[in-house]
Amino acid sequence: MNVIEIEDVHKAYEDVAVLRGVSLHVMRGTVYGLLGPNGSGKTTLIHVMLGFLRPDRGTLRVLGSNQLQRIDGRVGYVPERLRYHTRYTAREYLHYLGRFSNLSGAALSSRINAELGAVGLTAVADRQLSTFSRGMLQRIGIAQALLSEPELLLIDEPTSGLDPGGQHDVIALLDRVRTRGCTIFMATHFLDEAELLCDRIGVLHAGRIAAETEMHRLRGPGGSVVITVEALPPGMAEMLASFSPAVRCIGQEITLAPNTPALQARVLRALLDGGVAILSLVPQHRPIEEFYLRAVRGEKAPDRASQAMEPSPDAIVPPPPGPSGTGDTLLRELLSREEGRQRSEPESDA
Amino acid sequence: MSALHRTLQFAVFTLIEYLRSGRIMVEALATAAAFYLLFRRWTTPMAPEYFFSTVGLFTLGLTFYTGSAILALGDRPPGYVLLARRLGRGPYLLGLYTAILAVTWGVYGVICLLVAATNPVDGLDLRGWLLGTAPLLLNLALLAALLTLLSPIVLPAPWRLAVLALVALAFSGSLIGGPTMASLPAPVAVGLDVLRTVLSTPLLPAFTGFAISVSRDYSGVSIAIPVAQLFLVIGMLALAVYTFARRELIFSS
Predict the structure, then answer these.
(1) Which of A322, A328, B167, B205 has the fewest Cβ atoms within 10 Å of its own Cβ atom?
(2) Per 3-state DSSP, what percentage of chain A is helix, strand, and coil (rounded to 5)?
(3) Is A300 within a domain?
(4) Across chain A, what does the average pLDDT equal?
(5) How many domains does chain B have?
(6) How far is residue A246's CA from residue B40's CA, in Å, rounded to a whole number?
(7) B249 CB within 8 Å of a chain A CB
(8) Is the separation of the CB atoms in B9 and A96 below 8 Å?
(9) Which of A5, A82, A24, A77 shows the shortest CA–CA distance to A47?
(10) Nearest residue to B66 via CA among B15, B34, B12, B103
(11) Which range is least confidently modeled, A215-229, A282-296, A301-315, A332-346?
(12) What is the pLDDT of residue A347?
């Protein structure tokens, strides 16, 4: 079932057309990433969905309703640029917002405590928001949006303006939020967060969805990949090279070009069985970046089904879900071995 | 939670923010200055007419400041977070309005208490105070309603200019007087006169309300004046809420 259904929506500010026929659908329980450069109309589209703005043309249904001003309470909204009432403490702010969502009494207190805990702000709950860092403000923004346990979460630029630590925290937090089963619609111009969080992405360019695809299509193996290892034991380089002419070993780097699921799985298996410590596995180009750039340049390749996209493996962490034979199982095994090794190291040190 | 409850909740929310922002210091300082200059004990006792006319003008002036400051608080992007919830646009606007009234009526109350404690008005009993206070507070409510209606979140700029032009036309009687009117072609002068009369009618309750506040004379049809003030307040607020609920929401950044 679709939680968001947008058909041919147009919106102009005076004579400036911002949305020029946007159509997209978001399925329940998924994370949709709306990518686009600054000023492409992402915030406008979210404000249309919230009923703040009226479309000039086209139809919208959010949570099955086209009365957009009446769906408030079922939708959580995290605005861009951390725009909150900062003269309240975190707890006070959530208390008032909870009251405006028809929550009260013990139920409200319990929800506030749960959300403050979920975003890791319990210790600073009684501090005024004006003293919060940008990362903390973004976390309180996510907490307020989740307070009424919405069915749909609309997030506008979740990591914009945050330092790398703040970005990491917010992405990790949103990754936990997605496990609640809440549908998430996220506007962003950062490809990293879309890559890590989204199930499906669309690129908003020139007022339209210029390209749209499932993320797993961009996460699959392909292209070329470089595996960096600690050291290759004698004879290992020759053995790997014998698998295929596509394998080249130079020093600590093993390049698979072109990469295939079977070849990658075979090489990783050989390395694991040989007890070789793998330091990294990095694709040599980022499919999402290529997808995005092609879309904003108006190139034909990334059609809506993304059939023409050249798939490529993702980075080793986190291991993406993928079809059998893509090396996914091996990657997970590799990770679990690595985690086991890290766990055992402090013990052996002791 | 009812719309009234949500309105009051949001008014409290706005007031807390207003207090913590420090803007309330302007009202506090203005009140202290007004009390020192206008209402402290001089050589002669203070007459009721002096008190009500002076405090009436002072609080009207203060309402301009407080109304503008609180409406500006409501015209900021954090408002999107509130309006994405179940607060509703009506309670949002009326909450801002209620917060304005709470501050301006509060200032009036403080001045009255200070005057009663340090320099009681000569011959003014509780009944007389209530009779003078009712139209005075309704006038503050009327001005606050007008400011709310004319705020950028309610009316777009062209409409605000149009309403202000009509108000200016209604007040133009004191500027465009006899000689100027006489120099105008007869149809224009008559048309202008009619227009002024029509446009100044809604202002009548405000002016007569001020006069009743000073005189406390409710004889004849004067008793209808506070009722007219109240209906005018309700009418303006209804128009403001209707407009705000239907316009596109673009807060100042």
Answers:
(1) B167
(2) 40, 25, 35
(3) no
(4) 81
(5) 1
(6) 95
(7) yes
(8) yes
(9) A77
(10) B103
(11) A301-315
(12) 45
Query: Which residues 28-67 of A have a C-beta within 8 angstroms of B?
Result: 47, 50, 52-54
- Number of Cβ within a 10 Å radius of residue B49: 15
Query: Strands A200-205 and A31-35, how do they pair?
Result: parallel
Kindly give, in sequence order, each residue whose CB lies less than 8 Å from that of residue A108, ignoring residues fewer than 6 positions away.
A95, A98, A99
Residue of A52, A97, A141 with shortest CB distance to B249: A52
Which of A191, A218, A245 delimits the end of a domain?
Answer: A218
Strand, coil or helix: what is A77? strand
N residues, chain A:
350
Stated pTM of the model: 0.80
**Distance from C-alpha of B212 to C-alpha of B136, rounded to nearest angstrom:** 9
Work out the average pLDDT over A184-207: 89
| ipTM confidence score | 0.83
Residue B25 lies in a domain: yes
Q: Are residues A183 and A265 in the same domain?
A: no
Rounded to 5 degrees, what are φ and ψ at A304? Answer: -60, -30
Q: Of A72, A76, A85, which is closest to B86 when you measure between CB atoms?
A: A72
pLDDT for A135-184, tens place per residue?
Answer: 889 889 989 988 888 889 999 988 887 778 778 888 888 888 888 888 99
Angle of the B204-215 helix axis to the B48-74 helix axis, nearest 10: 140
Q: Which residue of B has its CA nearest to A155?
A: B81
In a domain, A297, yes or no: no
Task: Give residue B230's pLDDT band: very low, low, confident or very high (50, 70, 90).
Answer: very high
Please check whether residue A167 is in contact with residue A159, taking contact to mean a CB–CB distance below 8 angstroms: yes
Look at residue A338 in the predicted model and tell me its pLDDT: 56
- Beta-carbon separation of B248 and A54 below 8 A: yes
Spatial contact of B219 and B243, defined as CB atoms under 8 Å apart: no
Under 8 Å between Cβ of A272 and A330: yes
Q: What is the pLDDT of residues A60-80, one digit of tens each?
A: 998 887 776 666 668 899 998
CB-based contacts of B3, cutoff 8 Å, min separation 6: B88, B90, B91
Give the pair of three-digit tokens for residue A1. 């079932």
The whole domain housing A270 covers 225-285+311-344
The two three-digit tokens of residue B134, written as one number: 């009712």
Instruction: Note whether A138 and A256 are same-domain residues.
Output: no
